[in-house]
Write a structure and sequence with these properties.
One of its GO terms (cellular component) is mitochondrial matrix. Keywords: ATP-binding, Helicase, Hydrolase, Nucleotide-binding. It holds the Pfam family ResIII. By secondary structure, this protein is α/β, with parallel strands linked by helices. It folds into three domains: 149 residues, P-loop containing nucleotide triphosphate hydrolases (Rossmann fold); 208 residues, 3-Layer(aba) Sandwich (Rossmann fold), CATH 3.40.50; 173 residues, no CATH class. It has 18 helices and 21 strands. The strands form five sheets. It has a seven-stranded mixed sheet with strand order 9-10-8-11-12-7-13, with helices on both faces. A hairpin with a 5-residue loop joins β17 and β18. α1 crosses α2 and α7 packs across α8.
C-alpha cells in the first residue's frame, strides 16, 4: 500500500493488526519491521496507544524482545544479526508489517522473509503487508521479488485536496551551483562528496539563507536538507551569522543530544533545524511549516521524502512552504516542478499544487516544438532558449537569432553561430562580430569586429586574406555601431542595407540552385518560398558553417533523445499502479 503520511501509515498498521484473520489458533502474533530507530519507536508508540491490552516489545540494539509478544516492532538490522531471528517461531505469526516497504528487497528484509516462509507463496505463511510513501526504488530494483501486488495507492496531491495532508506552496530559487562535473553513484544519484564541493560554497550558502529570509518570513519551524556534515555545519553557521537560532542534527549527533534538539524544535523553541540524511524518512514533526531543499538530487523518491516532512497537518498551520534551491541544471536533476511533469528549468514563486497543475495543463495545451541551443547576444547573453531544427533548411531559414542585432543596426547582419554575426559584401568580403570573453566582469573587451577580405581569383591559393581586427568593444551595442561605421565606408550601401528594394524581389535561379545543392537530400526549395534578400542571408549561413552547425545540433539532439529515453524509463520505474508487481 502506498500512502504519503506518517499518521496514515501508522493508522493502517494499527487497524490491520486486528482485522487480519489468523490461519490457525496459534498464529496470533504480529511483527513490524523498520530500518530506522525513529520508525521503530513511532510504530511501537502507535501500537501501545491503539492496543493497550496487548503486549508490545521492541527488538533493536541492546533491547531484546522475547519473541512471544503479541506485537514485536523490530529494527531489521538488529533482528537479522547474531541469530536473533531464531526466537521468532514463524508458525505463531499471522502478520508481518513492513514500514518504508520500498526497502523490502534489501538483503536484511529478504533474510527475514525467508525465515517466515515468505520467500515463496505458501498456504501456512503469515500475511505480508508493506506501506510506503514512495513505492519505487531509484536503483531500479524491482519490488516483485518480495511483493505480489499493490492493493492501494493514494497520491500526495489527492491527499492534499482531501485535506488529509497540509497544503504546500513551492518556490524555486536558482542557486548558481554547477552540477555538470558532479559524478553519479552506483544508483544514479549524485556522489555526496562531489555534490558537497559544488553546493557547499560561501556564495550558495548565503543565497540559501537570504532566499529563506526573503521568501519565507514568519515561518516558525524550518527544516533544511543538506548534502553532508560539512555542509550542515557551514549552512547552520551562515544562518547564525544572520542572527537566527539555527541548530543541526546529523548521523554523528549523540542520541541524547539529538533527542533534546528534536524535542526543542517540536516545541518551537528555535526556528531552523539543519540536517543531512536523518529526517528523510519517518520523521514525525507536524509543526514543520517550511522546507529548504539545499541538496540537489536525481532521485524522485528522495525529493518526495524531503517534501513529505512538511506535509503533516498541525493546528494553526495553513501550509508548508517548500524552497527548492535548484542548480545550474544537469540532465536528470529532479526539482519540485518535475513532480508535476514540468520542466526542471521552471522557476516558481509561492506556487500551490493547483497552480503547478494549471501550469502543466496550460503547457500541455500550448505545447510547441521546443526551440536548438542559442543564446541571445549582448546584454542578457546568459539567457538560453532551445530550438530543434528538422533540417539544414530550417536552420538557415531561422532568423530568430538576428532580432537583437537588427534592433540595433539597419544592416543585414546574419547570425552564423553562438554570438557570431556576419555582414557580407558583393565581392565576398565580410565583417564578423564575435564575443571574445565569457567573463562579464573582465577588464578587457567583451566583443571584437574582424574584417575578412576576399582575394581576387589567381592571386593566392586561399580565397581570403588574413583576418584583420578592426575594433574591440566593452558592449555588444558598441561593437555593432563600430562595425556598422566601418562597413558603411567599405561596402556598397545598396547591398548591405536591410530595406533595399532588391531584397524583396524573387531569388535568382542561381541562389536557389546553390541552396538546394548545399542543403542535401531534403525537399528541394522552390522560388516562391523566399525572396532574394532571404536567399542571400541563407547562403551566408551556408558559407559560414551551417551544415556543420546542423550536424552538431543533430548530434546534440540524439544525445537529448537518449537522455529522454533514459528519463522516461526511470519515470516508468517510479510510477506506482495498483495491481500485481512485476518481479
Amino acid at each position: 500500500m502506498k500512502a504519503q503520511s506518517i499518521d496514515i501509515k501508522k493508522v493502517i498498521f494499527t487497524q490491520l493488526i486486528d482485522r487480519i484473520p489468523a490461519a490457525n489458533e496459534d498464529a496470533q502474533q504480529t511483527l513490524i519491521l523498520a530500518h530506522r530507530r525513529e520508525l521503530v519507536e513511532q510504530a511501537a508508540n502507535h501500537c501501545q496507544r491503539a492496543y493497550p491490552d496487548k503486549r508490545i516489545e521492541i527488538e533493536m540494539g541492546n533491547v531484546h524482545a522475547t519473541g512471544t509478544a503479541d506485537i514485536t516492532v523490530a529494527s531489521v538490522r538488529s533482528i537479522t544479526s547474531q541469530g536473533r531471528l531464531k526466537k521468532f517461531d514463524p508458525s505463531r505469526f499471522k502478520l508481518l508489517l513492513v514500514d518504508e516497504a520500498h526497502h523490502i528487497v534489501a538483503p536484511g528484509y529478504l533474510k527475514t522473509l525467508r525465515h517466515f516462509g515468505l520467500d515463496e507463496k505458501r498456504p501456512d505463511s503469515p500475511n505480508l503487508v508493506g506501506v510506503s510513501a514512495t513505492f519505487s526504488r531509484f536503483d531500479g530494483v524491482k519490488l516483485g521479488a518480495a511483493i505480489d501486488e499493490i492493493v492501494y495507492h493514494k497520491d500526495y496531491v489527492d491527499m492534499i485536496s482531501k485535506k488529509w495532508l497540509s497544503d504546500v506552496i513551492f518556490t524555486t530559487v536558482e542557486s548558481k551551483a554547477n552540477l555538470s562535473e558532479v559524478k553519479k553513484g552506483a544508483f544514479g544519484d549524485y556522489l555526496p562528496s562531489d555534490l558537497s564541493k559544488a553546493v557547499n560554497t560561501s556564495e550558495i550558502n548565503d543565497i540559501t539563507v537570504r532566499s529563506w529570509m526573503a521568501k519565507a518570513p514568519g515561518r516558525k519551524s524550518t527544516l533544511v536538507f543538506c548534502v553532508d556534515v560539512a555542509h550542515v555545519v557551514e549552512l547552520t553557521d551562515r544562518f547564525r551569522q544572520h542572527g537566527f537560532d539555527a541548530r543541526y542534527v546529523t548521523g554523528e549527533t549523540p542520541k541524547i543530544e539529538r533527542g533534546e534538539t528534536l524535542n526543542s524544535f517540536r516545541k518551537g523553541e528555535f526556528p531552523v533545524l539543519v540536517n543531512c540524511g536523518v529526517f528523510t524518512e519517518g520523521t514525525d514533526i507536524p509543526n514543520i511549516d517550511c522546507i529548504i531543499l539545499a541538496r540537489p538530487t536525481r532521485s524522485r523518491n528522495l525529493l518526495v521524502q524531503m517534501i513529505g516532512r512538511g506535509m503533516r497537518l498541525h493546528p494553526g498551520k495553513k501550509n508548508c512552504h517548500i524552497i527548492d534551491l535548484v542548480s545550474s541544471l544537469d540532465t536528470g536533476i529532479v526539482t519540485t516542478p518535475t513532480l508535476f511533469g514540468l520542466d526542471p528549468d521552471i522557476l516558481v514563486e509561492r506556487a500551490t499544487v493547483n497552480d503547478l497543475r494549471k501550469i502543466k495543463d496550460t503547457e500541455h495545451v500550448t505545447t510547441q516544438k521546443p526551440l536548438s541551443y542559442q543564446t541571445t547576444p549582448g546584454p542578457g547573453a546568459d539567457s538560453v532558449t532551445f530550438t530543434d531544427y528538422d533540417s539544414v533548411l530550417d536552420l538557415i531559414a531561422d532568423t530568430s537569432g538576428e532580432k537583437h542585432i537588427r534592433a540595433i543596426s539597419k544592416y543585414a547582419w546574419v547570425q552564423v553561430g553562438k554570438e557570431k554575426f556576419i555582414l557580407s559584401s558583393p565581392s565576398g568580403s565580410y565583417v564578423r562580430i564575435e564575443r571574445v570573453s565569457e567573463q562579464l566582469n573582465t577588464k578587457g573587451p567583451l566583443y571584437r569586429a574582424i574584417e575578412v577580405r576576399a582575394l581576387p581569383p589567381g592571386v593566392a591559393k586561399a580565397p581570403y586574406a588574413m583576418p584583420r581586427e578592426i575594433l574591440t568593444a566593452a558592449t555588444f551595442t558598441d561593437a555593432v555601431h563600430g562595425a556598422d561605421s566601418f562597413a558603411a565606408k567599405m561596402f556598397p550601401h545598396t547591398f548591405i542595407h536591410r530595406y533595399q528594394k532588391w531584397r524583396t524581389l524573387p531569388p535568382t535561379q542561381g541562389q536557389v540552385d546553390f541552396i538546394n545543392k548545399m542543403r542535401g537530400k531534403a525537399e528541394p526549395l522552390k522560388l516562391e518560398n523566399l525572396d532574394k534578400g532571404k536567399a542571400a542571408d541563407m547562403i551566408t549561413k551556408l558559407k559560414h558553417g551551417a551544415r556543420g552547425q546542423f550536424a552538431r545540433i543533430e548530434a546534440g539532439q540524439r544525445r537529448q533523445d537518449k537522455q529522454a529515453r533514459v528519463a522516461e524509463a526511470k519515470r516508468l520505474r517510479e510510477q506506482v499502479k495498483v495491481g500485481p508487481v512485476s518481479s
